[in-house]
Every structure is written in structure tokens, then in C-alpha cells.
């Protein structure tokens, strides 16, 4: 990303880029710290909300549980699901954008099931001529930013999975 400016405001754009990157790094650091502080069976719904804020969505779970979705798309590489039991205690907390979860997606699955499994995508692209819709999620397939990839689920006209694919994140090549 480049910022071009002339005159008295020159240089402000250059300072903006590091500030945005620093803020994004801070969010990741806060998320990782929050993950470490949450203890299943001990932490409460209030603890989860204090560390992660308002959920993007709340799903009904088994036995009166609720699943809270904390989305970090489109810029982030993580989506979290926190399962809160009927007693208000954390049962499970997980980062769901993983190759293991991607492998669970099968042809014919409805879009709602995929959305519940992976959280809100970073981008939804309809292709009217083919009747397909692509849902994309950004994730890390390794420990560093250069391991960034895009996982795509292709839905047919009935919003059922027809196929999936994973590609290198094009944002890595935009410098």
C-alpha cells in the first residue's frame, strides 16, 4: 500500500501505515493473551466477553449451551468460537480457521453449517452466470504472516458445498 501526498501533509500517510500495522499486531497479541487467560470450566461468559468483546453471532448449542462467534476477518487470520454452558461457564474456546476444520467440510453441506463451523467469511463473491457463490476466509498455514492463505468454499445455486480450495493469500504479493 502506498500513500502519495505533497505539501504540508506529506509524511502523514507514511506514519499511518505503521500505526495500522501496530494496531493489528496489538489485536493479535490481545487475542493470544485472552486465549491463555480463559480456562474451560472456570471462566465465565463475562470473562469471555471482557476479553473478546461483543460476539459477531450467537448460536444455539447442545444441552442449553450457546456458541459465541468472535470474528477477526477480513484483516485477521483467526475466528474464535466460545461454547458457554447453560450454567454460564466456558466449556470450550477454539480458533476455528484450521486445516483440520477445513477437512471436515463435505460436498453437499448447507451454507449455514459451514458458516457455523468457520464463522463469518472475510469475503462473499456471487457468480451469477455459473450460479456459484464463493466464501473466503483468511488463515495462517504456519507460524508467520508469509504463511497466509485463503480458504474458499464454493457453494452451488442451492447454497450447498460443491468444492473447496486453498490458495496463497494474494495480499502477500501486493507490496
In short:
The chain has 175 residues and is of the alpha+beta class. The chain has 4 helices and 8 strands; from the N terminus they run H-H-E-E-E-E-H-H-E-E-E-E.
Strand content: 25-35%
Mean residue pLDDT: 85
In whole angstroms, how far apart are the ends? 6 Å
The portion of residues assigned to helices is 25-40%
Strands, total number:
8
H/E topology pattern: HHEEEEHHEEEE
Largest sheet: 4 strands, antiparallel
Strand order of the largest sheet: 1-2-3-4
The number of helices is 4
Question: Which radius of gyration do the C-alpha atoms yield?
Answer: 19 Å
Overall morphology: globular
Structure class: alpha+beta
Low-confidence stretches: 1-28
Structure commentary:
By secondary structure, this protein is an alpha+beta fold. The chain is built from 4 helices and 8 strands. It has helices spanning 12-37, 45-52, 99-103, 111-118; strands at 57-60, 66-71, 79-84, 90-95, 123-127, 132-140, 148-155, 161-168. The strands form 2 sheets. Strands 1-2-3-4 form a 4-stranded antiparallel sheet, covered by helices on one side. The chain has a 4-stranded antiparallel sheet with strand order 5-6-7-8, with no helix packed on it. Strand 2 and strand 3 form a beta hairpin. The chain is globular. Mean pLDDT is 85; it is low at 1-28.
Pick out its properties.
175 residues, globular, single chain, disordered N terminus, 4 helices, alpha+beta, four-stranded antiparallel β-sheet
